[in-house]
């Protein structure tokens, strides 16, 4: 128990210690004037003027079109797999609906996988399609948040930056260098990195074991630093080749949180409102620790039905105990709980345990984190979501105390609130709408691996994960059907762009406003009081929207479990 | 303030070139560079941490493999496709906690474990021994699980049980850096060490 709490403490301390240096670096990357030499070469190749300042609409158009081109390229690579090199096992191309789903999934930073990496991708496409889309989608997310923060920081301005510069800098100054470093640590710990496809072993008992290999470490590092989450192997970061030691597990967790947590500090630096940045960090941290405690307590307490069957789930010096179905011994309950709480907070979606086999309240944690979608949040999107809730908070509080709402010195008016509400509502609309559609769709039941409330949770989890651009799954659901591939693909696109675009528009409209000096009637948003208000708004808006759906899934199942009812 | 361009002008070339160029850079140059450096620095791990015995590959240090003979320690239940510990198709049960199939499977595994190891009907079995892992390739078992199997292994190898328990203790890994992860035993390494013991 002490050991588990210490492990939590060490990891949270490491994350917090990285906030300032990484945040300082991010702020410099997005505000520094001089262009590096490789960057200037790149701009010349792209044929762009790096000093062009883009308005929000042009910025958004560049972001959208470049993503569309990258998605198309990824789709073509997946469809042409049969004729591309490095495919000695002769893995055929993905079918059109699956390739659409995969390309949409990776370009939106979701990394939902309706396929299993071992049997569906060649090593060439693990690199050229998957690693590529992971890199550029992470860079796109960073660029989006950079433009967004600039919009908040600028006054009486019509521009939010240059998309090509942000994209290139995010790749050259943040993602590529850190990924190379982390990938090498991963290899040292036992993650393979080779162009060979397989090794054949004869086990001690004389059986043949075909061991699949590939360029895993270079994918694994961007997968977590970029909060992408798509696995090289079907079982993702539970597979020993993706996550061989407790150290790689801890590094995965720190890599996922690295950029999202540092963005609070970068934001504070870029706005010269450091205290505001720390208020947001504190709000993130409170939610994270809360969710971590729930999943850890629930999983360590275990499943009463397993105890009745004769399994010993107690925590001893010689075993971690708890609900070990779908978990790995080297991580135990504590390492798994940290991973579960992190992967859905940072919208990564990689898993080091099977979420489908978590106890009901344990499984409700990743679901809820994705529904709120603003506990740290991946590659900027979570931060943008938190700001969206912050704008909502000043608006609500402003109405309650009869003051005109202001945020960061800018007046919040009808246009901003409308756009914010559009982003706030797009999220539940996509999740609940698609879930309802899937429940009514004939043939859905055939895709389920579990009956009753747990089956409902599998569907709800799929659309929540898609819309939140998370990518983790209650993996018992067979989502590789034309219906699920298409609707989850649409949910991913809706979740990504219907949040990002309205909020970029908010940033553009705030950038155009004058900054007002704080006056008597200003609600100070850089205080603990505001952090608490913000948390309430997040929980009430999130909670009220999703509670009925959660009641039908994990909550009923929890009561079933306590009553000893099996399905 | 620069002159504002219309949203679409001058975007065609950077949109097309950036997709192709960044694909080459991040999808090919980056992983190939990491592969090159990894082979210089850590050739053993980069190629899957393969374990060799007498020149033949017997497995990987980090992957589990199936053991069913009583003279070997047994790994956790594995639900990979076709056969347990199929390293070409990682897989899990994905059964929820109230699923009857899960509870029936665990009940059967508990009975089999008690039978194999000569345990009484009221002995609680370590949970990792009767639940399927997430990858289906878990290389480790808990110490509690290993110690309960020690008597069986010792009997079938005609070794004193203390000798086997001592070997378990020596093969065990503790928390990494004193705090990360869980104490555990790597089944392949433990069984290889058993095979390497001088005959009695």
Describe this structure in words.
The complex is a heterodimer of chains A (567) and B (200). Chain A is mainly α. Chain A has helices spanning 2-31, 37-46, 56-79, 96-107, 117-120, 123-153, 163-189, 216-225, 246-271, 274-301, 304-308, 332-345, 360-372, 381-401, 414-440, 452-467, 482-511, 528-563, and strands at 198-202, 208-212, 311-312, 406-407, 410-411. In chain A, a hairpin with a 2-residue loop joins strand 4 and strand 5 (410-411). The mean pLDDT of chain A is 93. Helices cover 46% and strands 9% of the residues of chain B. Chain B contains 7 helices and 6 strands; from the N terminus they run H-H-E-E-H-E-H-E-H-H-E-E-H. In chain B, strand 1 (50-53) and strand 2 form a beta hairpin. In chain B, helix 5 packs antiparallel against helix 6 (161-171) and helix 6 (161-171) packs across helix 7 (187-196). The mean pLDDT of chain B is 94. Chains A and B meet through helix 1, helix 2, helix 3, helix 6 and helix 7 of A and helix 1, strand 2, helix 3, strand 3 and helix 4 of B.
What share of residues of chain A is helical?
55-70%
| H/E element order of chain B | HHEEHEHEHHEEH
Distance between the termini of chain B: 87 Å
- Structure summary, number of beta strands of chain A: 5
Strand order of the largest sheet of chain B: 4-6-5
Oligomerization state = heterodimer
Number of helices of chain B: 7
User: Any idea what the shape of chain A is?
Assistant: globular
Helix and strand content put the structural class of chain B at: mainly alpha
Instruction: Characterize the overall form of chain B.
Output: elongated
Low-confidence stretches of chain A: none
Number of strands of chain B: 6
| Arithmetic mean pLDDT of chain B | 94
> Whole-number average pLDDT of chain A?
93
SS field, number of helical segments of chain A: 18
Order of helices and strands of chain A: HHHHHHHEEHHHHEHHHEEHHHH
Low-confidence stretches of chain B: none
């Amino acid at each position: 128990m002490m050991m588990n709490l210490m492990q939590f403490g060490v990891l949270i301390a490491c994350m917090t210690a990285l906030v300032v240096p990484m945040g300082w670096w991010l702020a410099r990357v997005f505000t520094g004037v001089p262009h590096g030499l490789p960057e200037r070469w790149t701009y010349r190749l792209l044929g762009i003027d790096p000093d062009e300042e883009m308005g929000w609409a042009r910025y958004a158009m560049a972001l959208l079109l470049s993503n569309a081109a990258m998605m198309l390229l990824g789709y073509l690579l997946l469809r042409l797999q049969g004729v591309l090199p490095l495919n000695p096992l002769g893995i055929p191309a993905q079918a059109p609906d699956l390739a659409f789903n995969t390309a949409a999934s990776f370009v939106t930073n979701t990394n939902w996988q309706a396929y299993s990496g071992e049997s569906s991708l060649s090593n060439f496409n693990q690199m050229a399609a998957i690693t590529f889309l992971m890199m550029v989608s992470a860079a796109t997310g960073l660029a989006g948040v950079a433009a967004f923060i600039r919009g908040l920081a600028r006054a009486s301005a019509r521009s939010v930056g240059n998309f090509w510069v942000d994209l290139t800098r995010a790749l050259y100054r943040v993602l590529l260098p850190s990924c190379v470093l982390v990938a090498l640590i991963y290899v040292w710990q036992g993650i393979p990195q080779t162009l060979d496809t397989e090794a054949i072993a004869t086990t001690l008992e004389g059986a043949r074991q075909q061991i699949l290999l590939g360029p895993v470490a270079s994918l694994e590092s961007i997968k977590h630093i970029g909060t992408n989450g798509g696995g090289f192997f079907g079982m993702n970061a539970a597979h020993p080749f993706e996550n061989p030691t407790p150290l790689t597990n801890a590094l995965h967790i720190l890599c996922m949180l690295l950029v999202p947590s540092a963005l609070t500090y970068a934001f504070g630096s870029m706005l010269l409102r450091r205290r505001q940045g720390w208020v947001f960090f504190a709000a993130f941290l409170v939610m994270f620790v809360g969710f971590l405690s729930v999943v850890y307590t629930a999983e360590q307490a275990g499943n009463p039905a397993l105890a009745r069957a004769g399994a010993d789930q107690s925590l001893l010096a010689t075993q971690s105990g708890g609900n070990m179905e779908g978990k790995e011994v080297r991580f135990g309950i504590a390492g798994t709980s940290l991973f579960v709480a992190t992967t859905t907070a940072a919208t990564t979606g990689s898993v080091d345990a099977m979420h489908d086999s978590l106890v009901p309240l344990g499984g409700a944690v990743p679901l809820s984190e994705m529904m709120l979608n603003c506990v740290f949040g991946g590659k900027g999107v979570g931060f943008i979501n938190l700001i969206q809730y912050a704008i909502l908070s000043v608006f609500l509080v402003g109405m309650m105390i009869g003051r005109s709402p202001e945020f960061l010195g800018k007046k919040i008016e009808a246009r901003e609130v409308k756009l914010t509400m559009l982003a706030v509502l797009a999220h539940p609309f996509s999740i609940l709408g698609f879930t309802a559609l899937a429940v009514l769709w004939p043939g859905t039941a055939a895709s389920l691996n579990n009956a009753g409330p747990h089956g409902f949770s599998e569907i709800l989890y799929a659309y929540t994960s898609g819309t939140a651009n998370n990518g983790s799954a209650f993996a018992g659901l067979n989502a590789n059907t034309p219906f699920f591939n298409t609707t989850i693909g649409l949910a991913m696109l809706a979740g990504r762009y219907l949040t990002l675009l309205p909020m970029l528009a908010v940033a553009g409209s705030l950038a155009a406003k004058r900054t007002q000096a704080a006056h008597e009637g200003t609600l100070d948003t850089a205080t603990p009081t505001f952090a608490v208000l913000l948390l309430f708004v997040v929980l009430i808006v999130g909670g009220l929207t999703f509670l009925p759906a959660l009641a039908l899934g994990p909550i009923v199942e929890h009561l079933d479990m306590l009553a000893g009812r099996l399905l | 303030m620069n002159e504002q361009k219309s949203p679409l002008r001058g975007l065609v070339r950077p949109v097309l070139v950036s997709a192709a160029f960044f694909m080459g850079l991040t999808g090919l140059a980056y992983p190939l560079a990491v592969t090159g450096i990894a082979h210089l620095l850590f050739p053993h791990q980069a190629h899957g941490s393969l374990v060799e015995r007498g020149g033949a590959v017997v497995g990987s240090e980090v992957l589990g493999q199936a053991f069913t003979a009583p003279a070997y320690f047994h790994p956790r239940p594995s639900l990979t496709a076709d056969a347990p510990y199929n390293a070409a198709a990682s897989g899990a049960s994905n059964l929820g906690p109230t699923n009857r199939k899960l509870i029936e499977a665990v009940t059967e595994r508990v009975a089999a474990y008690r039978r194999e190891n000569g345990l009484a009907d009221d002995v609680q079995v370590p949970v990792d021994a009767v639940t399927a892992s997430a990858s289906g390739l878990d290389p480790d078992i808990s110490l509690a699980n290993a110690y309960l199997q020690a008597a069986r292994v010792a009997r079938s190898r005609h070794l004193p049980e203390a000798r086997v328990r001592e070997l378990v203790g020596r093969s065990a890994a503790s928390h990494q850096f004193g705090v990360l992860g869980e104490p555990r035993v790597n089944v392949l390494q433990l069984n290889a060490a058993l095979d390497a013991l001088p005959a009695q």
